[in-house]
Every structure is written in C-alpha cells, then in structure tokens.
C-alpha cells in the first residue's frame, strides 16, 4: 500500500511540474527574448508587447469551427488536428518568432514542441490561449 501511495504521489508531482509551464509574468520582454529556450510561455501582455517589438507570425492552431468564433488579427490558421499540420507549418519562416495559441494552451504547447523539433528558433506560447486573450479585454476578428 505504501508503494502505491508513493507512486501516486510521484506521478502527481511530475504532472504538476510538467503542466506548470515556464511563464514568468514579471519578466520583461528583454528578459524573455534573451532566454535560451526555444519555447517560452508568455502572458497576454507579454504576447502583445513581444509581437510589436519582435514581429513574427501569429499562429492559431484551433479548428475551423473555433476560428469562426474569432481569431487574433492577422493570425495564420493551421488546424493542429489536421493530418497536414506538420507539413503546413514547414511553410512558416523558421528564423522569425512564432506566436502560437489555441483555446486554452494545451494544443498550442504541443504545437510549439513540433515547431521546436522542426527547427524554429523562437516560439512564444500564449498562456491561457485565446480565452485569456478575450478575458483580458482584447479584440478578435471574424
């Protein structure tokens, strides 16, 4: 019984660490840009500021039904669930930052890993996804 409890406790700790992300709401955009990690989770405000300062591609990895509800302006849309997702992202500029988001942050985190594997230099993952974007009072376009 002790082994089972210990194993479950270990799994719970690993899950918490794995899902905690690496966002730092207090980090300046300069500190974020200087991070050596390819993938950086960012808050809505950091996402917006970095987009203005760094430029790059906004990538919405939600489904077509979700896109119909509204997207961040100028976002390129590539459905994460599409069989062609990996091939479609190959068309993006790997040297330019990619600002990726989904509804809540799960798919975009997975998409960010694929982008990293494909050699993209910097990927900013919107922590909380478009839901956080909207909750912060930002507009979407249809």
Plain-language structure description:
This protein is of the alpha/beta class and 142 residues long. The chain has 7 helices and 5 strands. It has helices at 2-19, 29-34, 44-54, 64-67, 85-89, 106-117, 129-135, and strands at 39-42, 57-60, 76-77, 98-101, 123-126. The protein has a 5-stranded parallel beta sheet with strand order 1-5-4-2-3. α6 (106-117) links the parallel β4 (98-101) and β5 (123-126). The chain is globular and about 35 Å long.
**Tally of individual helices:** 7
Outline the biggest β-sheet: 5 strands, parallel
Write down how many β-strands occur, each being a DSSP E stretch of 2 or more residues.
5
Order of helices and strands: HHEHEHEHEHEH
What's the helix and strand layout?
Blueprint: H1 2-19, H2 29-34, E1 39-42, H3 44-54, E2 57-60, H4 64-67, E3 76-77, H5 85-89, E4 98-101, H6 106-117, E5 123-126, H7 129-135
Parallel strand pairs: 1-5, 2-3, 2-4, 4-5
In short:
By secondary structure, the chain is of the alpha/beta class.
What tags apply to this protein structure?
single chain; 142 residues; five-stranded parallel beta sheet; globular
